Protein: Glyoxylase-like metal-dependent hydrolase (Beta-lactamase superfamily II)
Organism: Paenibacillus xylanexedens
Amino acid sequence: MSHPTTSITVLNLQIPTPSGNSPIFPVMLSDVDGVTLVDTGMIGQFAELQSALEQEGVQLSDVKRVIITHQDIDHIGNVGALLDAIPDLEIWAHADEIPYLTGEKPLIKFTPERRALLPAPVLALADQLLLQLPEVNISRTLADGDILPLQGGTQVIHTPGHTPGHICLYFGEQQFLLAADELRVVDDELVGPAPQATPDMPEALRSLKKLTDLKLNKVLCYHGGEYMNDPAQRIATLAESAE
Ligand SMILES: [Zn+2]
């Protein structure tokens, strides 16, 4: 089945770090009712996000909703700026992540130690974002197994561990897994989540088992990009290390 009006576009934004730029990969889903962004980039990257969309021929006014895979600041960084620009923007997220996205609970990993690593201008934007979080209205609460009306049917897979409400998305027609931070590509190899950024690593590894029955051509990791070297087999191997 083909849908000429639907497409999945991987965006590429660069986060400056002391050791050089580090790419991250938000995703743009085009469907008949508009554009869905999956994650929004790092705090302070709104201009980059906007120009990445424009390069794909998309204006902010075309963006109908954002799916947040999880609460980390490099994923939610531009939610506030998007809400300012798009008043009726929908935000979809897993139930277990919502209290963090609405400011009811503090972001798990945005600790004083992490804050200290950010340059002052980014920190100022971070504080602005935290103040905006109580304005965030979640339009749709996602649950494991939901089939979203996007790309001919997009499956929500709840993969806790990296954060409580972390999700992956599976596009069945394309056999494409959007892994967010549940998997990474490091030195051309698919690996599990980053231990230093994953508070419950045993749970994150157990979550990998939920990915082992998927038919896969391609996995996209927010950190590391695309992986196409028999990803299903590699995920099965990684899942064996789960308790
Ligand atoms: Zn993360």
About this structure: The chain is about 25% helix and 30% strand. The pocket of zinc ion is lined by residues 70, 72, 162, 181, 197 (CB under 6 Å). The radius of gyration is 17 Å. Residues 120-132 form the longest helix (13 residues).
